[in-house]
Specification:
Blueprint: H1 4-10, H2 19-29, E1 38-44, E2 50-56
Antiparallel strand pairs: 1-2
Length: 58
């Protein structure tokens, strides 16, 4: 968690952000290359809203 916390704190997307914006921001924050095979993220926002973001490039 020591390594993840500073990265996660930099993320600025909201529940109203588009899926594309979220994926771009997260891949940039974690320095993922454009040729990643799979992206799967589940977020619970402060108001309790849950959203899932998935990409499968296989």
């Amino acid at each position: 968690m020591k390594e993840l916390t500073p990265i996660l704190e930099k993320l600025t997307f909201t529940k109203d952000s588009s899926e594309e914006e979220v994926i771009q921001e997260v891949t940039k924050a974690f320095n993922l290359k454009d040729d990643y095979q799979e992206f799967d993220l589940e977020v619970v926002f402060e108001d309790g809203t849950k959203k899932e973001y998935k990409v499968n490039n296989k």
